[in-house]
Amino acid sequence: METLKIIGAIITLIGSLFLLLGSIGLIRMPDVFTRIQAGTKASTLGTLLSLLGLGIIYFDMAGKIFLLIVFILITNPVSSHMLARAAHFIGVKKADLTVVDKLEEKGKNHETKNSAK
Amino acid sequence: MVTFFVIWVLLNSKLTPDVLLSGLVVAFIVALISCSKCDVFNDIRLSPKAMAYSITYIFVFLLELVKSNFDVALRVISPGLPINPGIVEVKTKLKSKLGRMILANSITLTPGTLTVEMQDERFFIHWIDVKSENIEEDTKLLVSKFEKYLEVIYG
Amino acid sequence: MANIILQIAGGIMLLSLVLSLYRFFSSGTLVNRVIAFDTMTIISISLIAMITHYSGRTIYIDVALIYGLLSFLGVVVVARYLEKSL
Prior knowledge:
The structure holds 3 protein chains of 3 kinds. By secondary structure, chain A is mainly α. Chain A is 74% helix and 0% strand.
């Protein structure tokens, strides 16, 4: 029982390290899209791992924690996709390192709204 | 309906008969009101092979998530900031709406790639480390590892 | 033993929350602030789950669930507003 608690605590510690890496990436990255990548994605795995560790420690709230994990896995890509799309739509300046932009070359039919989301 | 009921049971986290009965009634009413003509989930095939593939897909996806997370984390803490960003275009073979949505969400959830725009079968993906600018090669690198499972599940 | 490790983890989460709060105040444009806000809410969800451990009351998990729902709605509303199609 005690070893199970220690395993859960270590998983939570790894998750919090990923959260720290995510916010460091948020500060260091040069433009909006790379900031979305580093910030919201690296912290997703951090949150998943820390919730998983807490779920291992407390078995009685494992159901709710599982629900929370599934909820984060569904909503997080949708919100970051919409943010990136809005940022591209209003023409945010990209970093100088940017190699290629196929969507910009594709051009003016960007106004056709996609219907899947 | 089944989904609402499972969420109700997980929220209550206990299995007494009165909780189950009230959960059934509430899930039925909510499903009747809010979801009378939603046909999104009809695309799922319920054969045993599709079941096995979807379970495999979850594990493949989690493995890919952890691997690319370590990749992006190494890029963040290395002092030279070795990034090479750009927006590339890929094509998918999936037909159904739900399959495309799950594919786009999987691409967005793995760090390093981010779906910016979807137009029919073409995805525009922001990639933190662009390796090539060719459509076929990008498709092979980014999409096909998820697609070969999703193709069996959703068609 | 497990308690000490969990306390270190909570401290690291607080540090990363402070770092993204600095990003929130120092960045100029609206999109950057929304991204910093999104990261802050994701960190806050796991911090609220840690509060469950400290106080020993299970109700805080529900608070984290509702908090995630509200932050998702907020980010989607701001993104729609940026696209001028609200």
